[in-house]
């Protein structure tokens, strides 16, 4: 259960630390598909090249938080001090970083405030709108099946730790539930061969390796002698 007002975590702080109240008119856009098309002489219509590399391509999205802080022109010093703190918190980043909305604590955006907020001052409160420019996808880290963060409607329960011997290999599936291919981190101890789809990866010593995990269901096999731990980050709409 949350012990603070609804809001979001960004740049090392939760919005409630600044006394910030998120108003009810929060908005979140879905990313538009980026279509790459060409016309061919003497052929009707267009040729769609958007999926030539396998995954659909999307534009960026925005998340907008209309906010209020209860300081105002009745105490100008306090008001300007609190506004300065907010400006430093929101604008003091170099590129996109994690934005975690309290409504989706197991997912995050990669976001940046690019457009400076406009502050509307009143006697006892200040209203302003924060617009986060975000990468197209939400991201979900896949490490284990902790039940306190598991979403039974959206998530898929999968093992992330495997112990095998030459007599007890593992054969099964590994599902990337996102809509883009992910980087799969393999943490190997021992002498192992890992098969993902049609790709085989062999390791003869303890190491960490990153390979591609295509979207959807993948053949997943682990053989040899040792242990394997895996994790990846899914890109979801």
Automatic annotation (TrEMBL):
InterPro entries (alphabetical): Siphovirus-type_tail_N
Domain Siphovirus-type tail component RIFT-related: 20-134
Lineage: superkingdom: Bacteria
A Pfam family reported for this protein in Swiss-Prot or TrEMBL: Sipho_tail
Name under which the protein is recorded: Siphovirus-type tail component RIFT-related domain-containing protein
Organism: Ligilactobacillus salivarius
